[in-house]
Every structure is written in structure tokens, then in C-alpha cells.
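Side project, low priority. Logging it here so it doesn't get lost.
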Amino acid sequence: MNNTRSQTSIPSEQWCLGEPICNHEIEPKYANLKVEVLCNEFTKLSKIQWNDTLKKSQFILQQQKFGSFLELKEVIALKLYCDFDSLQCEYTKCYRPPYNQNKSRLSSFYWWNKILSSAMKKLSNSPTKFDNKRFKSVYHGVSSVMKLKNINDQIHKYYGPLSTTTDIFVARSMAGSKGMIIEIQFPDSDNRDLPSPINVSQLSAFPEEHEILCFNQSIYVKKVMLSSEFDSFKYLQDA
């Protein structure tokens, strides 16, 4: 979610909430997470990128920025999601039709999905969990204008990972001039077993993005604004 990074998106006429993945029904294509991201048929990391991510993840773990409850592989899974756009894009397609019908794709991202799911669950249940009530809104930039059929004014579950930000200007940067900005809120709940949005800016290579990561999260779409509308409003404010 940074204006210095390339914008990746999943082509669609409608913004999709996704569909759940039954990981126990999937056979992993690769032996472990490292092999999965180095040899993935859809997109892959170089060995240099992997080694760099490993070193940075080890440092984050040593600093205990997320407490002592995450394993190294879980920090790596989070960092892979935050730092590598093309990898993130291909992985999130596992939750979106029609891509989720491709068994090879699901098998190719088996370990990452399993480990990232585990990390987000631990963070949601941790003493340092991100409190939904602390935020009036977060924002998600979409690089093209899409329909939001039967989504507005209702609480829905968004399946898989969803990158949002507390900074609407970051969302506008990600949306581009021809996209749109979705304002998202979270339903109030005292149930600690429900997923919580997590502030991952501390481990991201782009902390200025103020990224809030959601995973299988219940959301409420408060408002949708075209980038052009946002720009016109900002122009009037600055005038």
C-alpha cells in the first residue's frame, strides 16, 4: 500500500468478499513454506529475497515486537504478506472465484495460508490484540471501480487476508486515479474468539502505510468513494 510500489489487483466487475478455504481438504504441493515461495509456479521469491526476509524476521522475533507467542515461521508468513505485492496478489486469489477452483493454486499456497492463519489467530487472541473499538474507520484502496452488490449497510464476513490502512491518503494512493476507496468499520464485540484486525506496520517494510491486516474478518462497509470524488473534495478543502 505504498505509492512507490506497483499496484496489483484481481480483475473483477464486483468487489468480492471471497469464499472460505478448507485447508484439511488440500494436499500441499511443496514440502514447506520456504520451498513453496522459492519454487511457486504462480510467482516466487529469489533466494536473496528469502534470506533477507528470514534475517529481518529473526530480528523482529528477537525484539519481541509481537510478544513471545509467535514462532519464526509465523513472523515470516506475516512479513511475506506485507512486503511482496506479487506474492500477496497471487495468494489472495485462493479465496476469490474463479481462481479458488484451481486445485493447483490452493496446493501451491498451502503452507503460507496455514501459517498465516495461525499467526493471525494468535495475534487476535493475544493480550496485545488490536482493539476494534479504537478505530472509527479503516480504508481499502481498489485500483478499479467495482460494484458492491448487497454489501453496503450490512455486516459481512470477508474471507482471507484484507489489507487496510488508518490513513485515507494511503488508500487513495493504492486506488490510483481510476479506482475507489472503501471505508470499513468493524462490528462491536466482546467475543475474544472472533478475529481482530491487527496493526502490522511494525513488521512491514513500509511502516508509513499504517497497515491494518484483517483475516476472515467481519466488516461493515460504511462508504465508497471514487478517487476522483476524493480528489475533488480534497481540492475544495485545500482551496
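Brief comment: Helices lie at 33-39, 47-63, 72-83, 85-92, 103-108, 110-124, 168-175, 227-238.
Revisit when time allows.
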